[in-house]
Design goal:
- By secondary structure, the chain is α+β, with helices and mostly antiparallel strands.
- About 35% of the residues lie in helices and about 15% in strands.
- It has helices at about 15-30, 35, 45-60, 85-95, 105-120, 135-140, 165-170, 170-180, 180-185, 250-260; strands spanning about 10, 190-195, 200-210, 215-220, 225-230, 230-240.
- The two termini are about 40 Å apart.
- The structure holds heme C (2 copies).
- One heme C binds near residues 59, 60, 61 and 101.
Length: about 270
Amino acid sequence: MKHPKHRDSVWNGRPQAVLLAFLTLSASGIVSAQELGDHQYTSEAIQAGLRVYSRECALCHGPQGDLVSGINLARGQFRTASSDDDLRSVITEGRAQGQMPAFALREEELSGVIAYIRAGFDPDGVAIRIGDPVRGRELFTGKGRCADCHRVNGEGPRTAPDLSAIGVMRTPAILQLNLLDPAAAVLPINRPVRIVTRSEETITGRRLNEDTYTVQLIDSEERLRSLQKSELVSYEVSEQPSKQPTDLSSDEVADVIGYLLTLRGAP
Ligand code: HEC
Ligand code: HEC
């Protein structure tokens, strides 16, 4: 057997090297709070929200946010609400004939208590803004061009991961990182590969799985392929993510995250 060739450019054939590169990237690649700008709530807002929550909400919802049945505020389980705007209207208008009273809060108090809920009740946590899923869906297929690569509920190409159940698989923070800094978020296994076989076929695609003797991938024609490594002349794994950070605005990113969180079906 001719051993698969390794190259030193952006492509690299050694899975261990790829994993290492990934670890380094994610250690250094975490987006700083400053870069995130208004994609997320500030820690001041979250801390202020804790005070509002303890004063106005804890009596009924409890210190852990789980005392009203069917609702767990700390875990983001609501009855009808999904976006931050929905939370605003619940809090300012009330629900269920005043069993959930209407509150007249100042703007900082209102956005603070929403931030505290979105941070999962962790005053030192991170609170991602979550926008309107209906607008998010339009952006997904339209301006955001996500549907050019991603498949949802049986529609769209297979070249990128199927997102039909992404809402139960990933946290808002990870979803946001995928959009703002794909290089830091990419799973090593999902990396783009380029392969040349002994029969001189060149195959490009996205790796799905790999063991000592075989590699499985989705090729550029969306076919699922399983290849014996002994049949390969060269096998290169890219260290670059196959996508660019999104150029959507922070409001639009919040909307897209709102939509992704509604995707809870089987892929
Ligand atoms: C007097 C008790 C009471 C207080 C105080 C209260 N709530 Fe509620 N809240 C409820 C009840 C009861 C419901 C369920 C309403 C229903 O049946 O739809 C609820 C529902 C909610 C929901 C889910 C609404 C939906 O339809 O998904 C949110 C979010 C919420 N409350 C947030 C808050 C926040 C934030 C505060 C403090 C600013 C607060 N609540 C204060 C009793 C209260
Ligand atoms: C050019 C093709 C392309 C476009 C456009 C694209 N993606 Fe991706 N996306 C990928 C690929 C490929 C991956 C797998 C990781 C990688 O290689 O970077 C991925 C990964 C993801 C993941 C992580 C999946 C997981 O299993 O964790 C999410 C979420 C995601 N994309 C959402 C989006 C959204 C939302 C948009 C639109 C704003 C978008 N993508 C646009 C190709 C694309």
